[in-house]
């Protein structure tokens, strides 16, 4: 897929942004390739995704400055929309997406990581929103997601100062869930994805939707969102077999068995 590689391992998919000579910077073609890759994921067999960057230096170093440097106001707004449309697609993708941040995650790199459900990183990772030092604002959701993830005050400090932070500080402020040595990062991401993939896929999807949709409304409306998605799980094979297996275990532990959830 041009600048993006895709591999499926059992029930998990691994998406790798493959432009290492440019530190995996996001230009229009990379954005198009990523969008097409997400569109091609077989949701009948894949239950979780890992998103990472090629090489050992960079996850995504940012949007392509060379491409942006000559844009008009209208073209700049259109480029922002192109990135935002893709990142919303990732954020709203039916199955969980784990960002395995293996180096620089600056500007658009931090923004695409924040559009994923879970972020883990290498101890060599570096995060930041350097845009104000380039005369622009974050344009792919950085002003919005960072404030929601780490608090408005911390987001403003990072964005206004254009300061990069290392993996340990990203973990301290809650931007990432865990930090690993570089060589352990992708195996850890795959293990996490495989653990998610073992659970009932309808339930996992509904949990993602409940969390995402509920965060956009007040609590009274949010619990109604949850109630509907909770109810939606019933009468499925996964719900019936999952609960039956729990009851078998309660009555006679010897009868417990591994449940092969069917996404139906």
Contiguous uncertain segments of 5+ residues: none
Count of DSSP helices?
11
Percentage of residues in helical conformation: 40-55%
Strand content: 15-25%
Computed CA radius of gyration, to the nearest angstrom: 20 Å
Structural class assignment: alpha/beta
What does this structure look like?
The chain has 264 residues and is of the alpha/beta class. The protein has eleven helices and ten strands. A six-stranded mixed sheet has the order 1-2-3-5-7-10, with helices on both faces.
Could you give a short description of this structure?
By secondary structure, the chain is α/β, with parallel strands linked by helices.
SSE layout:
Elements lengths: L3 E6 L2 E6 L10 H13 L7 E6 L4 E3 L4 H4 L4 H19 L5 E5 L2 E3 L1 H7 L3 E5 L3 E3 L13 H9 L1 H10 L3 E2 H6 L5 E3 L1 H16 L3 H14 L4 H14 L4 H15 L13
Helix pairs in contact: 1-3, 3-4, 4-5, 5-6, 9-10
Features:
264 residues; alpha/beta; six-stranded mixed sheet; 11 helices
């Amino acid at each position: 897929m041009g600048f993006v590689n895709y591999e499926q391992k059992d029930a998990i998919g691994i998406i790798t942004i493959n432009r290492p000579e440019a530190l995996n910077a996001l230009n229009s073609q990379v954005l198009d390739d990523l969008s097409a890759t997400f569109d091609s994921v077989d949701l009948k067999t894949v239950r979780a995704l890992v998103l990472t960057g090629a090489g050992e230096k960079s996850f995504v170093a940012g949007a392509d400055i060379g491409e942006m440097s000559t844009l008009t106001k209208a073209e700049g707004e259109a480029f922002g929309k192109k990135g935002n449309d893709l990142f919303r697609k990732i954020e709203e993708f039916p199955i969980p997406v784990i960002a395995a941040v293996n180096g620089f995650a600056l500007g658009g790199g931090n923004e695409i990581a924040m559009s994923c459900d879970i972020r883990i990183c290498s101890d060599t990772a570096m995060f930041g929103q350097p845009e104000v030092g380039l005369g622009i604002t974050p344009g792919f959701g950085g002003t919005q997601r960072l404030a929601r993830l780490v608090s408005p005050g911390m987001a403003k400090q990072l964005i206004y100062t254009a300061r990069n932070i290392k993996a340990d500080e990203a973990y301290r402020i809650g931007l990432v869930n865990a930090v690993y040595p570089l060589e352990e990062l992708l195996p850890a991401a795959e293990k996490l994805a495989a653990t998610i993939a073992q659970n009932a896929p309808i339930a996992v999807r509904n949990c993602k939707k409940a969390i995402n949709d509920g965060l956009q409304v007040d609590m009274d409306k949010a619990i109604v969102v949850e109630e509907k998605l909770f109810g939606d799980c019933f009468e499925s094979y996964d719900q019936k077999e999952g609960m039956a297996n729990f009851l078998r275990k309660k009555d006679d532990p010897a009868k417990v068995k591994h449940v092969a959830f069917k996404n139906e």
